[in-house]
Amino acid sequence: MSTFWSLWIIILTVINMVLLLWVLLANRKVAVAGEGSTEAKTTGHEYDGIEEYDNPLPRWWFYMFVLTFIFGAAYLIIYPGMGSYKGIAWKDTGAWTSVGELRGHQAEAETVYAETYGVYSKMPIEELARNPDALKMGFRLFSNNCAVCHGADGGGNPGFPNLTDNDWLYGGTPEKIHETLVLGRKAVMPAWGAIIGEQGVAEVAEYVLQISGNEHDATKAEAGAKLYTTNCVVCHGADGKGNQLLGAPNLTDKIWLYGGEPATIRQTLRDGRNGVMPAQQELLKEDRIHLLAAYVYSLSLEESN
After folding, report:
1. Domain 113-184+278-304 falls in which CATH fold?
2. Which residue stretches of the chain are H helix?
């Protein structure tokens, strides 16, 4: 913080405290009408026949305000609040800061959690996927961090993959699931509407319906196959079975990320899709991600069994 802004904060803080204290003391000096007085002094305000007495604050109330000023002054001496002044509440690592306090509590929490999660951190994911206690912890992590997108049962939602069906965009091995959780994923399906036109969109959509085993228009599908070969093979492959390195889905298995209705397929082709799986490495840390990967892996094991 520059000297100017430091002084700016200090001056404004001091002026505000002095003015507020002056207002408090000035009102305290107002005397109550003396004994024998036939008229009580009022502020002159009147509404609907009701007048406001010009009496000082009750003593207990006044002292409460005084205590707040004392507390405020002590706080600004002990903790940083006056520009670049660091306060006298020192830690081993330097001056007290709210961020430093937070980091300290987080470090304490990590120590406690390490005792809980550390038991499982060295166990292989395949083994954890069959460990009831580990799965209970993984389920809680999933419910708190993943269920909002993938559903409470991992069954997915439009645009968010089903984690129970053994069909994986980037691979379903323990290593790939762990990688997805740590680094996140960002998939891009380009918009083809401006390139192949609305007729081309309709024809490719019919071809996709054909290779996925759905009802389709054979004439349009034949024309769409040529457009597919020209524009789509590089990602989805000549056989339409996708590419996990690119996150390009398999178009032949009747499993759809955004929906397999003709209108939805045309929308995907026309406007493209942009799916994002957030990276969890900073939020959950390695020991939790390890357990979460085991839980997600277990969901596909249940399906395969």
Report:
1. Cytochrome Bc1 Complex; Chain D, domain 2 (1.10.760)
2. 3-28, 59-78, 98-121, 125-128, 132-145, 147-150, 174-183, 193-211, 218-231, 233-236, 262-271, 281-304
Backbone angles phi, psi at 2, to 5 degrees: -70, 160
Contact 30, 36 (CB under 8 A): no
pLDDT at 93: 52
What is the pLDDT, as a whole number, of residue 58? Answer: 83
Top CATH class of 187-277 equals mainly alpha
* pTM score above 0.85: no
Q: Tokens standing for 276?
A: 């994002």
Per-run averaged pLDDT (10 residues), the chain, 305 residues: 86 93 80 53 81 81 93 88 78 67 84 80 93 94 96 94 93 96 94 96 97 96 96 95 94 93 97 94 90 95 64
Domains 113-184+278-304 and 187-277 share a fold: yes
Structure tokens belonging to residue 158: 């439009």
Domain ranges of the chain: 59-96, 113-184+278-304, 187-277
Amino acid in position 195: I
**Contact yes or no for 211/260 (Cβ under 8 A):** no
